[in-house]
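Regression test attached.
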Amino acid sequence: MKIVIAEKPSVARELAKVFGATTKKNGYIEGKGYSFTWAFGHLLQLAPPQEYGFIGWRRQHLPMLPKKFKLAIRKIKTKEGFVDDPAVKKQLDIIRQLFDEATEIIVATDAGREGELIFRYIYYYLKCKKPFKRLWISSQTDEAIKEGFRNLKPGTDYDTLFNSAHCRSESDWLVGMNATQALSISAGARSVLSLGRVQTPTLAMICSRYLEIKNFVPQTYYQLSIQLDQQGQIFKAISVNSFDKKEEAEALFEKIEDLKSGFPNGGHILDVEAKPRKEPPPLLHDLSSLQQEANKKKGFTADQTLSLLQNLYESKLVSYPRTGSRYIGDDIFAGIPDLIRKVSDHPDFGKQADFLQTVSLNKRSVNAKKVTDHHAILPTGENAYGLSADKQAIYDMVVGRMLEAFHQECVKEVTKITVESGSLFTANGTVIRSAGWRSVWNDNEEEKKDEDNPSLPKVKKGELLPIIEKQLLEKQTKPKAMYNEASLLKALETSGKEIEDEELRYAMKDTGLGTPATRASIIETLITREYIIREKRNLVPTSKGLAVYDVVKDQKIAQAELTGQWEKRLEEIRTGASVTDFKSEITDYTRTITNELLAAGATLLDKMSPKTESVKAG
DNA sequence: GCAAGGTC
């Protein structure tokens, strides 16, 4: 019997289907000489400190540097505390039995670093010694799967990939566990003060933005505004320059030749510029962009959106949700017309679905090279009925985005009129000529700048128009907005792009901080630790969060660059570089940060404002 | 009690 092991049940089912294996057994599918089984993501994790004898949180244990890491079954939280997840235990037993009977093991976990780790941890935990082959495919179509099985690779081809995954895993444990205990212990251990490669830079981003806003000093500046009349159609123009000094603005204000000052036609039209502007449709959704849309439109948290989406996925209504790709391959594209046809009876989208069947589809989201482990999120075409309001809302965002992505571009006409009257003024207007993809949601929620006119009257260069009103505007510069879940997710995705060091920036070019699958839980962790709170839609640091930030802000653990450095080294390991070098670097770093935090944490209590900590202390 | 990673 040949055993195929996938990362998750949906993939195992897909593979079994291609082979025509149909006998459903407990925990696997059998047929045609194969058994298709699965994991549920990581079944095993690095064992916690107490399993190496580090019982309790004690200064003398630090840094904890296990000689050899152990693996432990994934835990779930119950009333009695953390226990082995029974579902995981059961699945491991099934896998063990299948491996025992196997004549051949075929690894079909996702084609990437973590997919490799998921399998290897199982394999080593079960002490399996049989050789294995690797299925390596980047598309889940029948043809790609068949081709992949014709081209199975020797399992050992991926040993270096496993090495890099293993290093990632152990390094996160070493740095995270030690830094967390060091800070907690030295701060008096009243509560858990967690730190980690991903959560701490995320906290730092939220805190530094908050402080930037808090310390922001608004600057007053002045602008001039005039209203012109073109045969009864009124439009507004704003001075090209803004002024720091009021006197300067007042001097030019006096020079405006408006009606009240005795000028019947004081607005000289210097120039009229009308340009079409084309907006291509947005790309299909990946998890992050969908979480952002759901947060903006519905106020859902990243975590809520992920769980609603997981639910839709388990009901087979949408494709795999934790994807980082916003593209599909040509094979999937071939099925899009069918999917669009099925939307025809949708109450909101039916009309646009009908329209799309009459035109050729936009292929902006079609690019097989940009499909990684999973393609962009799509509906499956199964009938969706009786969904809860929240689930329906998410489902509609998936369907709506599909229609948008394959729709036509939106064509706007942007007009700019330049007026002279003592000084220069411009009037801007935007008119949608052809809504294209924007007709799907029809909510045209483009932020309108307040100086924008919805539409401008026909005006010709050289014309003279009456100025019916003039105003001196006193304005203030505004700080950046506080992070909310949508803007934070975006910032996590792009955090690598702001790194100055070119190599580190390159190392993070397709990762950012965290992964699509983990970002929602990072936000939740920071909330559980009482580092941040949700205030309306904003994520605001607490005094505890700010105090932790203050201790670590200049340390490497608070910088996105740390991930960049690791990614660079891990990629080198994947291509064959020494593992021992990296490991000893991480050990050194663990020692350093542990000692620094053991010393620094003592100052942390002073930094917390009285209202959070001393109340509890009293 | 603690990381980050994956998923039901």
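Expected vs. actual: identical. Residues 449 and 487 of chain A are 20 Å apart (CA to CA).
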